[in-house]
Structure formats: structure tokens, C-alpha cells
Amino acid sequence: MSGIVLHHYPPSPVSEKVRVCLGVKGLDWHSVIIPRVPPKPKLMPLTGGFRLTPVMQIGADIYCDSVCIIRELENRFPKPTLFPDGDADAAWAIGRRTDQQMFPVILAIVFSDGVQNMPEGFLEDRAQLYFGGNITIDSLRAQLADKLAEAHTHFAWIEAALQKQSFLGGDAPGAADAFAYYVTWFLLGRYKDGPAFLAAYPNLMRWQAAVKAIGHGHPFELTEDAALSLARASEPLPSVGINQNDPSGFEADEMISVRPENDKNITTGRLIGLSADRVSVLRHDPDVGPVAVHFPRAGYVITRVKA
Ligand SMILES: N[C@@H](CCC(=O)N[C@@H](CS)C(=O)NCC(=O)O)C(=O)O
Fold it and tell me: What whole-number distance in Å separates Cα of residue 267 and Cα of residue 282?
């Protein structure tokens, strides 16, 4: 077994991005289904506060955010690569575009359809997380035409990119496909007019069927309690050093807190790793003992905790 534990839930689009990468690599992994809204009492001992989905665990190392997860998958399981054309930067640029420009637009479109069969508190929670609190279904409906127009701009670009090649990185699938697929999957599956909207893009529809056919590798169900036991029985990997050129001036072993730019929940711990791509803290949890929690550097706010 690979040792990978993915904490996720099936309808999570960002988790779908990671599941496709697991499929491209053909990995086996443990699947832990977590709640769709807080509280997430059995995830918190691992992340120390971070509540977004997905989270990847390998032993006592916890990887928060799909960007951090996918980088770690490529580090630990390099073959087959997620960057078949050798241009990882180009793939990550597509990822930034789909995460930062497309995902918010698709969210607004999907939510304008209303939310049926959702857990209690779902709409209030997501309104706060994604729209800063001040939205209603009616206000989203009022913007729908603009959001659909913006979505066309992005999907037309994917359609054009797929004109002469099977996948976004060439003949073989990779991370760029996962990055563009998850927003397509979200629109197709959760917006009632999504299939009609995307029917205008034949290359994209052919491609999305091919990415879907890749699957998710080999998931095996695991309970949240079993995942906590795995962390308890493991030691985090050794720290990886501090980038002295980081503009923050943070030093090894300082107590810091880390949170996503769009969320108030913080994770506090001792700084054990800082690079251009990643910030890592070590925390001691009463339930599971020492855990290293890793985040992307970009898009996260790091604060020094006063002693
Ligand atoms: N930047 C994060 C975004 C993750 C995200 O927004 N995930 C959604 C689910 S698709 C989420 O966390 N929703 C709230 C929740 O699951 O509690 C990443 O790439 O992992």
C-alpha cells in the first residue's frame, strides 16, 4: 500500500482534482469520508484547526490543500509523472487559473441553482467561506448571466487548447487535466443546465470523458478512528529546513499560526519547514501525539505567535 489516506467526501470538487491525480498515478489509497460542514472532530486532531477539504495524511504527516497534496504526490510517487510534457510550471499556471478564476465563477453558477438535500447549515457556511457572507440565492441569480459569460471565456480556452491534442499536457494525462477537469466536473454534475452549456465544446466533452475514464486509482475505505490510530502509531518525517530568504524572516522553531487567506481557522505549531512552496509546523496533539502539518506557502497567512 502507498500509505496515502485521503480525507474527503465524494461531492467535493477540489477532492475530485486530487482523486484524478491518484488515478493518473494508478495509486492505491485509503479513503476516509469526513463531514461536509464543521465541526469535524476527528479531522481536527490531525490538522489542528484547518477545516477545508481535501486533506491527505501519510502516517503522522498531514498535507493541507490540494496544491500541497499534489506536490507531495509527485515527490513521493514520481512515476508516472503528473507533468508528461516536462513543463510543470505551465501546468501549475493552469491550476492557478482554474482555482482562482474559474472555481469562484462555477461556484456562483452552481449555488444560483439553489442547494437541495444539503446538511443543516451548509448554505450559511459556504456563503461565508466563498462569498464573504453577503449572498442570497436571489443575488446569485441576478449575476448568473455575467457568470455564465465569464465561464464561456474560460471553457473556450480549454476547448481551443484541446483542438490538436488529447490532453492538456500532450498525449498523456497529467496534473493540468486534473486542474481543468475538476471545475468541468463540478459544472456538469451540479448545475442543471451544465450539460447543455458544455455541449458547445466538443473537444472538451471528448476530453472530459477520457479524464473520467482514468478513474481514481484504487481506494479502500478507512474509518476516521483508524486514520487517527495510524497517526498515533507513526512519527512525522524529519524537518526540511527554513528558507533564509523568505521575506517574513521567520526562524526555525518559532511558534507560528497558519491559515488560508479566505478562512479564519488557524493551525498553530513550531515552524519546522519553510520553502517557496510550503510551510510546515510540528504540533503535539493530545489524541495522536506529534504531527507535522504542511500547507502551501502562497495563499496562506502566517503569523508569529507571541510567547
Ligand atoms: N485551496 C483549497 C480549497 C479547498 C476547498 O475550498 N474545498 C471545499 C470543498 S470542494 C471546502 O473545503 N469546503 C468546505 C468544507 O469541506 O468544509 C484546496 O485547493 O484544497
Answer: 10
The packing angle between helices 202-214 and 144-161, to 10°, is: 80
Position 174 in a domain: yes
Can you tell me which atom of ligand 1 is nearest the CA of 14?
Answer: 10
* Closest C-alpha residue for ligand 1 atom 12: 52
Query: Mean pLDDT of successive 10-residue segments in the chain (307 residues)?
Result: 97 98 98 97 98 98 98 98 97 98 97 82 91 88 97 98 97 98 97 97 98 98 98 95 91 97 96 97 98 98 92
β-sheet bridge partners, residue 56: 6, 63
Atom from ligand 1 closest to the CA of residue 36: 16
Q: What's the total number of domains in the chain?
A: 1
The DSSP call for residue 49 is T
Q: Provide the CA 284 distance to its chain's centre, in angstroms.
A: 25
Give the residue whose CA is nearest to atom 1 of ligand 1. Answer: 65
Q: What cell was used for 96?
A: 492557478
In a domain, 184, yes or no: yes
pTM of the model: 0.98
Atom of ligand 1 nearest to the CA of 69: 20
Q: Looking at residue 142, which CATH number applies to its domain?
A: 1.20.1050.10
User: What's the CA-to-centroid distance between 52 and ligand 1, angstroms?
Assistant: 4
Q: Which residues constitute the domain of residue 189? A: 88-214
Distance 14 CA to ligand 1 centre (A): 6
Q: Is the CB of 270 under 6 A from ligand 1?
A: no
